[in-house]
Amino acid sequence: MEDLVDRIYEAAFVPDLWPVVLDDMSTISNSFGGALLVASEAHPPRFAASASIRDALIEFSSGAWRNNHRPLRWKPSLDGFLRDVDLFSPDDLETDPMRHELIRYGLGWQAGMVMPMTNGEVVIYSVERRLQDGPHEVDSIAALNAFRPHLARSGLIAARLGLERALATVSVLQNVGLPAAVMSANGRVIAANQLLDAMPSTFLSRAFDRLAIGDSRADVLFQEAVRIIAGDLTPVVRSIPLRATTERPAIVLHVLPLRRSAQDIFAGGNILVVAATVRTGSPEPSPQILSVLFDLSPAEAKLASALGSGCSLKTAALNLNITVKTARTYLERVFYKTGTQRQSELVALLRGAGPAASIAAATPV
Question: Could you tell me the residue ranges of all domains in the chain?
């Protein structure tokens, strides 16, 4: 017991330890798996979970959470963990949307503890049983409640540190001159620094604290990048060019996945957005710089650099020892990645993508 208490407090500061702690809670209560969630009425929950139910939590957080009214029934209680069978009548269970979701995930019985936070969110611990295993016994709940005060303190600390870590991330980037924001999987801004806030025509605020880009073409690429990262569909960082305006120079928006923190409660964010200013007026954009700026492959970057230097597509293909058909294929990919539609538009953009004034290797912390 003393060892588990120590690890509960350790997990508050080292989030990678939560799945093991939740596994131990499951063992103590004869459950199939356990979870720790930070939830609100307006946004998907952030969570850590046992490996056995992690896939179910990922699916739950992608949409089913909107139909979950159990936290309202599971009112904060000094008694700690409560069973679903103690809070719902048999008829209520039959009509409870979350009950049907649990069964669809291969589960069926639940016990949980709800703790409110001052910002309106709630911290929730739950342990899950499969339908065929029956409800939790009273003795199993008593075993969990022996750890109630430790779980309560640790959960609240972990949830609060998540916000502080997001704020620290964007503050560090501000110190090196990079506008930045940390976002959740659904595009909600968790933290943004003053440099980004000072660009209201570039970064537009939307309902529910979501972010949009003032340039419509760039916004299409940005929203797509957010969807891809949130869905864990690709590990590739997305870089999106924004043309110079009368208010600011050209910039490249880097959308980085926070993979290790994608679903844990400590970071509270899935996406890091960084805006880097580029110096204009370079007649010969470097393939290396273009590759970094726009996620171009080496072949795509060489073709783009040749076009930006004034070569025709046919001449560029000849110089690169590729066919014109292959060059056109590369060009279509370059159009897509740079948000352009015509070769003249691409060339104009590339000639503004010389050596960067503040391109930095922004690594999620």
Answer: 2-160, 162-350
Query: Would you place residue 220 in the very low, low, confident or very high pLDDT band (cuts 50, 70, 90)?
Result: confident
Own/partner contacts of 339-347, CB < 8 Å, gap of 24 or more, are 339/217, 339/218, 339/220, 339/221, 339/240, 339/241, 343/307, 343/313, 346/304, 346/307, 346/308, 347/307, 347/308, 347/310
What pTM, to 2 d.p., does this model score?
A: 0.55
* pLDDT for residue 151 is more than 50: yes
Q: Are 109 and 136 in contact (CB under 8 A)?
A: yes
CATH ID of 2-160, from 3.40.50.2300, 3.40.190.10, 3.30.450.80, 3.40.50.12780: 3.30.450.80
Classify 162-350 by CATH class: mainly alpha
Q: What is the DSSP letter of 210?
A: B
The first and second tokens of residue 174, run together, are: 């501000």
User: What is the per-residue pLDDT across 3-21, written as a single tens digit (0 to 9) for each?
Assistant: 889 989 888 877 788 999 9
Q: Half-sphere exposure (CA, 13 Å, Cβ side) for 73?
A: 18
Distance CA 344, CA 78 (A): 68
Q: Are 182 and 164 in contact (CB under 8 A)?
A: no
For residue 90, pLDDT beyond 50:
yes
